[in-house]
Amino acid sequence: MRKLIILSLLLILSSPLLMAQQSSEGRDEETARVEITARSDQESYRAIPCGYHGALIFFKSVEIADAQRVKWYFSFYDRELKQVWVKSLPILEDLDFRFKLFSKDTVFLVFTYTGKLKSEDQPLEIIRIDLKKGSFIPNLTKVPANSEPVFFNVMGRNAYLALNHKSGQSAVEILDFKSNHSKGFLLDRQSPSAFRWFNTDSASSTLNAVISKVLSKKETEHWYQVFDTTGKVLLSVRLSTINQDREFTGFTAIKNQNGDYLVMGTYRLSIGSSNQKNKLKDESAGIFTSLLVPGNQKNLNFINFLELKSISSLLSSKNLIDLKKKALKKNKNMGETSVDFRILQHDPIVYNGQYIMASEVFNPQFHTENFTDFDFYGRPYTNSYSVFDGYRYTGAIIAAFNSEGQLLWDNAMETRDLIGSDLSPKVVVKPEGDKFLIAYSAAGGIGSKVIRNAETTGKPEFSKLDSKYPDDKLISETRNGLIPWYDNYFLCYGFQEIKNVALESNNKRFVFYLMKVKFED
Fold first, then answer.
1. CA atoms of 440 and 455, how far apart (whole Å)
2. DSSP for 249-264, written as a single string
């Protein structure tokens, strides 16, 4: 039986610093908890795991540093969640956190422009944090107006930003950390283009990308391209579905053991086909893989979600029967029918010679609010509008492929009560020996499942997380998450509203919490 062990530390916020203290509250020594008083879930608290070094918490304060900058506070903790240092750093008021990267003993944080002046070149700041020294090295630069940084990576002494521009003139911006000078190159001067995936390859000192080029309103081409750091194209392969009834919807890629590129992603049945006329462009019908050998696309595979052995974990028996009846009625097989999932792809994992693609299924969630208004004659009438609640994540799909892109096995897990304010991975997929752990945080607890390839070992479990006091009652939880830390340890975090009528004072509180969680067989 797998055990869930909670290890944490109680934190109390004493503005402007994060002060730490041990608190057992008469409970088991292994059970403790992080709590930071918050006003709302719109506050900018974030936690970043930093491997064996520890963990970093940072947030934007309301303190003014000068006419243009506000103070952000950073607090670093060791593996036992004991505070090592706390420091503040002034950052331009119109910048907000966008990307993070942890490498060796350095955390890279990217802050992008969120102000209203979009017609001018926009400031962008990259902050390097040396965890051992507790030192900050900021690099302030600018990116072209009306451009959006969509990918970020670091290679050597340079930062690489992939920028999608409203005009379609997308570009790579390269910042030299030592000189703080930047340079870059455009993707395509002939056709509007956009990055769909981007990464750096330090072994070959190259930049790899999947790029979409718009040729006309009805025609878009997708290309896998490899650049050197000057922008010279070293490899360019057009990605084609071959079959006109299919269109690509998402991309990721990885280099296989032979040094060839394996592109993995999602596809939809063509919007123009008869059974897809009312479908949305961001919905997918299945997974595709394509092996790229120098100059050529090879081994193109399409796997409809309905053809996966694990699809019953995400769809009810009734829904599956209805889809089969629909296919039979139109004299089609299941591969020609679409379940229409919205998909968020993870970065692929290489493990034991297998190439693992994890995807999460989500849907935007809204609720309707009504209010009474009055017409010109003073007569009341009811008006209503939709309010966006967030993205509801309903399940995760795990598919494993060999180096040629052929499906080896698949598995899936249903997720419940999982709502996110942004589109970012919520489910953790972590190799453990010959097994994989699938886990997520929701509703004050952690849902988990252990699989061995297509087989599920044991039953999916949901473990409640302890709160600070025995009589605490969880009222609501938002912006929660679970992230791998080191070995079998994870960090669980989020905002919670908690009520406890047994307390003489402060019997209702709103907090940002952080917990150290360990999974054991």
1. 19
2. EEEEEEE-TTS-EEEE
Q: For the segment 70-97, what is each residue's pLDDT rounded down to a tens digit? A: 999 999 988 888 888 999 999 999 999 9
Picking from 478, 472, 476, 459, the residue whose alpha carbon sits closest to that of residue 502 is 472
* 396 contacts 361 by C-beta, under 8 angstroms: yes
For residue 252, give the nearest of 187, 186, 184, 343 by alpha carbon: 343
For 379, phi and psi rounded to 5 degrees?
-85, 135
Angle, CA 50 vertex, CA 5 and CA 33 arms, to 5°: 35
Contact call for residues 209 and 202 (beta carbons, < 8 A): no
Show Cβ contacts of residue 396 under 8 Å, excluding neighbours closer than 6 positions: 358, 359, 360, 361, 412, 413, 415, 427, 429, 438, 440
Question: Is the pLDDT score of 23 beyond 70?
Answer: no
Which residues, other chains included, contact 417 with Cβ-Cβ below 8 Å and sequence gap of 6+?
442, 443
Q: What residue has token string 């709160």?
A: 467
349 forms beta bridges with: 356
In whole angstroms, give the CA distance from residue 156 to residue 85.
27
Q: Which residues contact 398 (CB under 8 A, 6 or more apart)?
A: 356, 357, 358, 410, 411, 412, 413, 429, 436, 438, 451
Cis status of the peptide bond prior to 484, with omega within 30 of 0: no
Find the helix or strand (DSSP H, E) in which 497 lies: strand 489-499
CA 279, 285, 287, 293 torsion-angle sign:
negative
What secondary structure does DSSP assign to 345-395, as a single string? EPPPEEETTEEEEEEEEEEEEEEEEEEEEE-TTS-EEEEEEEEEEEEEEEE
As to burial, measured by CB atoms within 10 angstroms (0-12 exposed, 13-18 middle, 19+ buried), residue 439 is buried
Q: What is the DSSP letter of 328?
A: H
pLDDT at 280: 57
The continuous run of DSSP H or E covering 227 comes out as: strand 220-227
Residue 492, pLDDT above cutoff 90 = yes
